[in-house]
Amino acid sequence: GFAKLDHHRPLRTGMPEVIFASGKTIEHVTAIFVRMAQAGGNVLATRVSPECAQAVLAAEPRAVHHVTARCITLEQAVPPQGKGTVAVVCAGTSDLAVAEEAAVTARLMGNTVELIADVGVAGIHRLLAQRGSLQSARVLIVCAGMEGALPTVVGGLVNAPVIAVPTSIGYGASFGGLAALLGMLNTCSPNVCVVNIDNGFGAACIATLINRM
Amino acid sequence: GFAKLDHHRPLRTGMPEVIFASGKTIEHVTAIFVRMAQAGGNVLATRVSPECAQAVLAAEPRAVHHVTARCITLEQAVPPQGKGTVAVVCAGTSDLAVAEEAAVTARLMGNTVELIADVGVAGIHRLLAQRGSLQSARVLIVCAGMEGALPTVVGGLVNAPVIAVPTSIGYGASFGGLAALLGMLNTCSPNVCVVNIDNGFGAACIATLINRM
Amino acid sequence: GFAKLDHHRPLRTGMPEVIFASGKTIEHVTAIFVRMAQAGGNVLATRVSPECAQAVLAAEPRAVHHVTARCITLEQAVPPQGKGTVAVVCAGTSDLAVAEEAAVTARLMGNTVELIADVGVAGIHRLLAQRGSLQSARVLIVCAGMEGALPTVVGGLVNAPVIAVPTSIGYGASFGGLAALLGMLNTCSPNVCVVNIDNGFGAACIATLINRM
Amino acid sequence: GFAKLDHHRPLRTGMPEVIFASGKTIEHVTAIFVRMAQAGGNVLATRVSPECAQAVLAAEPRAVHHVTARCITLEQAVPPQGKGTVAVVCAGTSDLAVAEEAAVTARLMGNTVELIADVGVAGIHRLLAQRGSLQSARVLIVCAGMEGALPTVVGGLVNAPVIAVPTSIGYGASFGGLAALLGMLNTCSPNVCVVNIDNGFGAACIATLINRM
Amino acid sequence: GFAKLDHHRPLRTGMPEVIFASGKTIEHVTAIFVRMAQAGGNVLATRVSPECAQAVLAAEPRAVHHVTARCITLEQAVPPQGKGTVAVVCAGTSDLAVAEEAAVTARLMGNTVELIADVGVAGIHRLLAQRGSLQSARVLIVCAGMEGALPTVVGGLVNAPVIAVPTSIGYGASFGGLAALLGMLNTCSPNVCVVNIDNGFGAACIATLINRM
Amino acid sequence: GFAKLDHHRPLRTGMPEVIFASGKTIEHVTAIFVRMAQAGGNVLATRVSPECAQAVLAAEPRAVHHVTARCITLEQAVPPQGKGTVAVVCAGTSDLAVAEEAAVTARLMGNTVELIADVGVAGIHRLLAQRGSLQSARVLIVCAGMEGALPTVVGGLVNAPVIAVPTSIGYGASFGGLAALLGMLNTCSPNVCVVNIDNGFGAACIATLINRM
Amino acid sequence: GFAKLDHHRPLRTGMPEVIFASGKTIEHVTAIFVRMAQAGGNVLATRVSPECAQAVLAAEPRAVHHVTARCITLEQAVPPQGKGTVAVVCAGTSDLAVAEEAAVTARLMGNTVELIADVGVAGIHRLLAQRGSLQSARVLIVCAGMEGALPTVVGGLVNAPVIAVPTSIGYGASFGGLAALLGMLNTCSPNVCVVNIDNGFGAACIATLINRM
Amino acid sequence: GFAKLDHHRPLRTGMPEVIFASGKTIEHVTAIFVRMAQAGGNVLATRVSPECAQAVLAAEPRAVHHVTARCITLEQAVPPQGKGTVAVVCAGTSDLAVAEEAAVTARLMGNTVELIADVGVAGIHRLLAQRGSLQSARVLIVCAGMEGALPTVVGGLVNAPVIAVPTSIGYGASFGGLAALLGMLNTCSPNVCVVNIDNGFGAACIATLINRM
Ligand SMILES: Nc1ncnc2c1ncn2[C@@H]1O[C@H](COP(=O)(O)O)[C@@H](O)[C@H]1O
Ligand SMILES: Nc1ncnc2c1ncn2[C@@H]1O[C@H](COP(=O)(O)O)[C@@H](O)[C@H]1O
Ligand SMILES: Nc1ncnc2c1ncn2[C@@H]1O[C@H](COP(=O)(O)O)[C@@H](O)[C@H]1O
Ligand SMILES: Nc1ncnc2c1ncn2[C@@H]1O[C@H](COP(=O)(O)O)[C@@H](O)[C@H]1O
Ligand SMILES: [Mg+2]
Ligand SMILES: [Mg+2]
Ligand SMILES: [Mg+2]
Ligand SMILES: [Mg+2]
Ligand SMILES: [Mg+2]
Ligand SMILES: [Mg+2]
Ligand SMILES: [Mg+2]
Ligand SMILES: [Mg+2]
Question: Are the C-beta atoms of residues E123 and D156 closer than 8 Å to each other?
Fold first, then answer.
């Protein structure tokens, strides 16, 4: 009784409910994961601590732990396939955890993902060198901390929707990702929309819906 | 020389550059509008004051002034057509200016638009009565001020992407739209992304790109 | 002499003073609890750590530790009885700690409590399925983190007072419950009032006064 | 079609929908007021400018303009009667607009109202002199700007629910009512709940529901 | 060379420089304390951790550790004597650390101190019972967290200067003492001034200068 | 009945209640001023607009309008005399309105005032040239906007209490005086306390109490 | 006596004191301007309203009004000459007022200025087309509002110091330039430093000192 | 593949890319350091924890660990030499970590550095005693926490560029360095620019570019 699983949601939204492990006990996460695994669909847990991952994998050995992404997945069904590539772009090495959360989620939901890392705007030639990959993506997820300028620049290079994910990477006046978030909301590229700080998962959900169209 | 028009952008992003009239003199807005009109494409000016609108229409009588939306449009070309309907939903009468900015922009960019107004979550039956319209839209733009809860509820009812637009409608602890913005960023519906406060224009741009897919 | 117990208060306000354990030493909490137990009324301690709970129960074995609620109670008197049911509603599993603090407090103060969990607005059918319970409550306490939309939707479904409790559940732009707090203060349901972030205790006090009327 | 009036709401919540005039055109306010007047119930408009009031009274001469409260009322039905007195307390002369908004609303909704003004905590004897009135109220609405301490002190003097209304009165570090709002949310009187800055109307709605019990 | 001790300052301001231990290594604090002890005046270290206190007392056995106040003092000189009593008032048990820091500092600087604890405004009779002590003080230091209302009420009861110290005690919307700070800055008692959050030391310095007049 | 004048306060605090004209109608200010004038004591109104000043002087021709200070005074009684000089120091020309409010208030309350203007810290020699005046004052009021550094520097030069008044002078990241306020609260001069932004009046009240000792 | 002109400063810092007209009366600005003009050096007034400009030019007909820059200059002396070019770059048409304030100031202080406008990062080719001009500048001033990304991208293209000026251009979550300010402070280009929002004047002062080296 | 080193940047900006160790695993930092060391240039890692430093020195024994500065350097090339002295000034002992980060970086980049510590503005004579050193520097880096006033005072004493570094030293209303940051941005010394909180590294980069001119 501690959780009302929303069995309707996959039908309504085309995506399974997902376990947000942060703030839940290891026992709760493991129990929910096993219950969902038995329901037969694909299962995803995000924000999983290493200890929690160990417990889940002990209970469900078919599950896979994605260390950088802090995710656990169980693939046992074939989701609707995305029509093109989802590009996941990130500014610095430290943004990789968020970018990988997006990539793992998007792959589990049936997308082909191309990850393009360490192309921050302070060395714009690195980004311009990826122009081909960027322009061939059907939808882009762009993760950046600090000043959060990357989605704006990427947005000006492509004519596809860009989903911007501010990350909490930074210090001082970054205020836990607030600077990047505000930067992205004030973008002057009109093809950019934004999700919560560090929300790689949510970005992948929207990208999936778009890529299925 | 006071403005470098970005003639490349329509080719790169599939959308014309647009005149953001707020903070520009009436003379500047009129001059840019006329220059763009001569370039032959469709033209859009947003955040136009009544005085400014009069001046633009005097200089270019074919233009149309959308009063609630605070926009001026000139249609002289056929844009790529969207494949389905864009639903523009808003919570209260006061959010209409932002919703209409989104609707006018989306129509000019080739979309069929359905406007669903005054369906705030405090009387949820009003929203549920529109379930058919909501679920048949290919992409949704949802505008709300005050507590900004509408996109989350709509997001749970559909399996299409929802673009949330916080509005500056409210008083006291709404802090100019901040409350609605934070509410939308913290949505628990994973198919919701967010644009800047009052940015109906930007929401329509993203919706257009998605609806063309 | 380290604490002036307010013996007048039960007489003035109809409720005993309560021990807020957070920030007090285990020794202080235990000593105050024992002193209050000897005074003969019911005793409540909130925000009790597991170690502190152990110490209190060792000193007063009749006391009960409510783990999820992080509370200790001692029942040895019959409080004035509430006339109807207090519904305690919460959005997600993670809000349960706050909801249980409210429920434990309300029960100790003489109310019949119905706990309705995991009915977040992203799957509105779950909430609508509880309409009966919601509408038969005499007063409602509604706890939610993240976007904090639940009290507004509940407020529109009932004609009883709704006490909204923002929780610190969330991440990124939730800013420790600020997003939920602002959302609730800006509610467009006029039967909603708000208490401090995570303040399940305070919500139960107000609900008790109302339910005694 | 510009507004969907929520005809269900009076039945669901026991209160008519109300016109929040701020941000609406004079024409819209007048038209909605007249339409509601024809529906036969009592009508309330809040945040009405002097010009708007003139237009509404011209269209509906039976309406009454409450200048300090910035409200217009039309009484043509007998609402359910409150069982006791609602005390409306305010700290300073400048808080009167908010206090009067609460008083006008509460009276229209069937309550006996006692207004107690200018009893700020810097001269506590003024407040203590009103102890009789305070303690005989069934529910209290307490409005204060600046440091917002009044509801806390009142809350300690009574055993009834206190609804605190922060006002935007103040300057400098009051930040438009934020200081008072935070003060009230952090109250150490457990019988205090809070509504939005300047929201006298909402406070009266909750007080009405409580006073009908 | 890691610290330039300001030997002029006692002459200029009538008070010795003091060691703010927070953020300094135990070795640094101990070394500076010993050096100052050798200079012959009284020595004060504030914000001392238990481990640091142990090290300082080992190096200078004449020093005294004030546990609640988190201070170490060494008395070896007679400071100028204050002319009256400094009252140190605090709202709750949890504010005692800050109040004691003020009291220890004020005593070391030559003042007679009267500590009045646990007289929060939610039970105003507790405060009124102390009216005699409050009114006989020459200067008052008033510490409070949460809503920070105590200095305002005290300020209205006396005709002496009141130095308000917001404390970081609270949770949720107290935002680490911000709510109390704003409340005190917006006081409507004109005899109240404010120092930084938790700054019992600074309050005592100002009180000392006033009490010497 | 619209204002309860606090006739006790002069007796309790040694200072008359004062009219804060901002946010009151001209009629109200004039009426209160006349009523207070008839009571026989000195009268002070602060934050008076030019139009309001004209009305008050028409009704009470003995009153004096201090234009820069935005104050009106009526002297008809001899207040207790301060024992020394109150120095009122300000950083720039634009801070003069606040400094003059302090000076006018302090003079009316029986103090000898020395005004030292335009001695901002960016040209420290200007300040050092005033060292004599600063050091001979019994208490100092220091007003500064922008970075708010002046009270800290002055505090290090004197051994008297310094009352810091942040002003709203500045732009951009001064956020209406917030930068100066925070700077003053974080002062490393221990003889500095702070009042609200632009609150020259309050600073003078505290200075008066101190200077009478 | 209302202003102590800092005659030492030109000697100490190599730059004349400048009149910041905002918040000063027209009479004060005019009088100070004339007094400075008589002292023989170059004179600069910033943030001058059109009415004020008219008054100053009437009193000193040799002065020049720079309309977009909102500045008045009087050139009557030859300042030390900068060794290279100062590039003043801005993102959009609306940032021109700030960019021109920087350009006018820099020219008056002896620099050759190249103004590069409307090269926002959403169309990066426009900026890359200016690479030659950017790389030949000895120091760069880069002004941008909204997301404030331009200085970071420019910083990555040059090996000269970049002085970033956030502008207040934007709306909604730009919060008066705060978003741009935070973006610039969190830049990942290590050759970027920042001045206050809209402070074109200050940026030019630093650029001048650097360009003289 | 986890990091794209920007080999172009030294050529473009005259400075090597640097390892920001905070948030990276010890293995990553060590691997990158070794790779950069093999590339033959000088190497710098900042924000290195003691454990991480041990690992790097084990892998590259020629590297030097600067404990206070939390940096590791490897010198194996001769950088372009600065033409004058870079003064690194700090307010208090606790600001030394940031000041040393700046000093270590500046020395590695070819500058002669003079460190001037513990000259906070509350004892201005300490700073004035260093006037000679300050005025002979070619560029100054000034670090301060708490009220952040030091760069403004230093700025008024010299005619060289001042790079202000706010530090996170402080408590209460310092809000992690925000108070110092705002103070520096609002400086009234026009030769001051600002970098992120605690960013000694960035300040040294800009100082290096200036000192090479
Ligand atoms: N209502 C609007 N809200 C946000 N951005 C807009 C709006 N209207 C136009 N824009 C953007 O502003 C750009 C024009 O800015 P500007 O060069 O200053 O005229 C356009 O290319 C759009 O991307
Ligand atoms: N300039 C001022 N700044 C702050 N408080 C003021 C000022 N002038 C008057 N006051 C306070 O405001 C109170 C009067 O408020 P009210 O009852 O609204 O007229 C006085 O008793 C003073 O304590
Ligand atoms: N546009 C500007 N932005 C920031 N500071 C300015 C500006 N113009 C002038 N100032 C500064 O303001 C000082 C003059 O202030 P004041 O004494 O109030 O006239 C000058 O010395 C400059 O340092
Ligand atoms: N202490 C520091 N503070 C700020 N930025 C730094 C610091 N140390 C290194 N950096 C920057 O961080 C970049 C490296 O980031 P990353 O690619 O995540 O290792 C370097 O190129 C520098 O520009
Ligand atoms: Mg990198
Ligand atoms: Mg409506
Ligand atoms: Mg759930
Ligand atoms: Mg009053
Ligand atoms: Mg207590
Ligand atoms: Mg000046
Ligand atoms: Mg443009
Ligand atoms: Mg020191």
Answer: yes
Half-sphere exposure of H187 (CA within 13 A, CB side): 34
Give mean pLDDT, residues E44-63.
97
The pLDDT-based confidence of B1 (bands split at 50, 70, 90) is very low
- Which chains lie within 8 Å of chain H at 3 or more CB pairs, if any? A, E, F, G
Neighbours of chain G (3+ CB pairs under 8 A): A, B, F, H
Question: Above 90 in pLDDT, residue A120?
Answer: no
Predicted confidence at residue E31, as pLDDT, reads 95
pLDDT at C1: 44
Touching chains F and B? (3+ Cβ pairs < 8 A): no
Q: Measured between alpha carbons, how far is F206 from E158 in angstroms, rounded to an integer?
A: 12
Say yes or no to pLDDT of B134 above 60.
yes
CA distance F162 to F139: 6
Neighbours of B141 (CB within 10 A): 31
A68 at interface of H, judged by CB pairs closer than 8 A: no
Percentage, residues of chain F above pLDDT 70: 92
| Spatial distance between the Cα atoms of E5 and E18, rounded to a whole number of angstroms | 10
Confidence (pLDDT) at C13: 56
How far apart, in whole angstroms, are the C-alpha atoms of residue D146 and residue D110? Answer: 31
- Mean pLDDT, residues B178-185 taken together: 98
The confidence score (pLDDT) of residue B2 equals: 47
- Cβ neighbors of C84 (< 8 A, separation 6 or more) are C112, C137, C138, C139, C211
At position H28, the amino acid (one-letter code) is H
Locate D38 and state its tokens: 């024809």
Interchain pair C13, D206: CB under 8 A? no
Q: Three-class SS string for chain G? A: CCCCCCCCHHHHHCCCCCEECCCCCHHHHHHHHHHHHHCCCCEEEECCCHHHHHHHHHHCCCCEEECCCCEEEECCCCCCCCCCEEEEEECCHHHHHHHHHHHHHHHHCCCEEEEECCCCHHHHHHHHCCHHHHHHCCEEEEEECCCCCHHHHHHHHCCCCEEEEECCCCCHHHHHHHHHHHHHHCCCCCCEEECCCCCHHHHHHHHHHHHCC
Residue B24's pLDDT band, with cuts at 50, 70 and 90, is: confident
* Of residues G91 and E151, more confidently modeled: E151
Work out the mean pLDDT of chain G and round it to a whole number.
92
Distance between CA atoms of H117 and H127, rounded to whole angstroms?
Answer: 10
Confidence band for A5, pLDDT divided at 50, 70 and 90:
low
What residues in G contact A178, CB-CB < 8 Å? 182
Predicted confidence at residue H1, as pLDDT, reads 43
pLDDT tens digits for range F167-206: 999 999 999 999 999 999 999 999 999 999 999 999 999 9
Is the per-residue pLDDT at H2 higher than 50? no
Beta strands in chain D (DSSP E): 19-20, 43-46, 64-66, 71-74, 85-90, 112-116, 139-144, 162-166, 192-194
Taking CB atoms and an 8 Å limit, are D183 and E183 in contact across chains? yes
| C139-144 and C85-90 strand pairing | parallel
| Chain G residues with beta carbon closer than 8 angstroms to that of F174 | 196
pLDDT tier, E5 (very low <50, low <70, confident <90, very high otherwise)? low
Minimum distance, in Å, between the CA of residue H9 and any CA atom of chain A: 7
Angstrom distance (rounded) from CA E114 to CA E134: 9
Q: Do A92 and G175 touch (CB under 8 A)?
A: no
Quick one: which of D105, D93, D97 has its CA closest to D49?
D97
The minimum CA-CA distance between A113 and chain H, rounded to whole Å, is: 17
| Per-residue b or e along G176-203, where b marks 16 or more CB atoms closer than 10 Å to that residue's CB | bbbbbbbbbbbbbbbbbbbbbbbbbbbb
Closest-CA distance of chain F to residue D8, Å: 40
β-strand partners of B89: B116, B142
